[in-house]
Amino acid sequence: MRDDNEQKDNVIEDVLFSPDGESIAITSKEGDIKIFNIVTGNLKKLKGHEGRIYSISFSWDNTQIASASADGTVRVWRVSDSKELRRFIHNKNVKAVTFSKDHKTLVSAGDDGVIRIWDITPRTQVENQVIKWLDLTCNYLHNYLKNNSSLVPKDRIICYGVNQGKNQKYK
Are 162 and 135 in contact (CB under 8 A)? Predict the structure, then answer.
């Protein structure tokens, strides 16, 4: 039996059957996703969010799951190996996420009042290299953007949403 404190920390935010009916995904305010395969008894944990997860969605082919979190991100995970595949940024809590039936688009909405449509088609090797270059560049510019008083506010957001999904907005 659990004590009251442990039970409060394990509040379930969302629960969802996979489209094939073989798995159940559960999220909690702990910031992780548990996927229980009711056929095999296998349990997987997807970890990476830095806040509670409000919503989850399975892809229609059961290969991926998307999560919407209080950390301002939407993440796409591969179910087979629990690997995070993509990360998308909102400006505030993300409360809802769902896949399109063609598995090319993800839709999310949150406390920023914006519905976002994300292209989730696989990236090419060149696209991955460009993203890696942008990450490195924005890491390099971090202190400059944060501390240079001669910058106007709109210039400080040049790397916003670039740094591997980390929220890099400088005020």
Answer: yes
Nearest CA-CA partner of 34 in 19, 20, 24: 24
Q: What are phi and psi of 38, to 5 degrees?
A: -75, -15
| pTM of structure | 0.69
Indicate the SS3 state at residue 56.
Answer: strand
Report the 10 Å Cβ neighbour count for 53: 27
CA distance 96 to 116: 10
Cα separation, 68 vs 54, in Å, equals: 6
Residue pLDDT tens, the chain, 171 long: 344 444 555 688 889 999 999 999 999 778 889 999 999 999 999 988 888 899 999 999 999 999 999 988 899 999 999 999 888 888 889 999 999 998 889 999 999 888 999 888 877 777 777 877 887 888 778 778 878 888 887 777 777 666 544 434 333
Q: Are the CB atoms for 67 and 86 separated by under 8 Å?
A: no
